[in-house]
Write a structure and sequence with these properties.
This protein is an alpha+beta fold. It has one domain: Beta Polymerase, domain 2, CATH 3.30.460.10. The chain contains six helices and six strands; from the N terminus they run βαββααβββααα. Strands 1, 2, 3, 4, 5 and 6 form a six-stranded mixed β-sheet that branches. A hairpin with a 4-residue loop joins strand 5 and strand 6.
């Protein structure tokens, strides 16, 4: 399964298919972003093999120049990759999905290649893939939050922030 109605939370067991779709998406994104990004990687819970996740692929892009990325928005949108503004200060969010059904399949996060966000996306993924006991704790938290906030993705996401910060500290993140 890939895709989820906007604003809702449903968790699914990890699907190996997500890795294949992520690789295909990255291949599609490379020419669209051109040389404005130096790297594109599958991140987020769908990239952590041992845990359940919302069936929305998170892709992170390391931008060489955020304004050069902004200039490519028309090209991206023509290909079905829609700009949604700044996810948080200094990071652009693009989405893909079935917009008639209000369903999202991909969140594409574009952040400066020398910034903490780019490092932290990869560090979080790599740390949880290397530490299954911490991944299991993250999954337990996600399941608890999904049970309480199935129709409130904002609260679900907020409820994970302290744990994510803890994992990044354990992993040695530099802010």
């Amino acid at each position: 399964m890939l895709g989820l109605k906007r604003g809702t939370v449903t968790l699914c067991p990890h699907e190996i298919e997500w890795e294949r779709i992520a690789a295909e998406t990255i291949g599609m994104l490379r020419p669209l972003f051109g040389d404005t990004v130096s790297a594109i990687e599958h991140v987020g819970s769908t990239s952590i093999r041992t845990i359940c996740a919302k069936p929305i692929l998170d892709i992170a892009c390391a931008a060489r120049d955020m304004e050069a990325v902004r200039a490519r928005i028309p090209i991206l949108e023509e290909a079905g990759v829609f700009f949604r503004g700044e996810d948080h200060p200094g990071e652009f969010l693009f989405v893909m999905g079935d917009f008639d059904a209000d369903t999202r399949t991909h969140h594409i996060h574009v952040c400066p290649e020398d910034g903490a966000d780019w490092r932290n996306y990869r560090l979080f993924r790599d740390y949880l893939n290397a530490h299954p006991e911490r991944a299991a704790a993250y999954e337990a938290l996600k399941k608890d939050l999904a049970g309480r906030y199935a129709d409130d993705r904002g609260s679900y996401t907020s409820g994970k922030q302290a744990f994510i910060a803890e994992i990044l500290r354990e992993a040695g993140a530099v802010s």
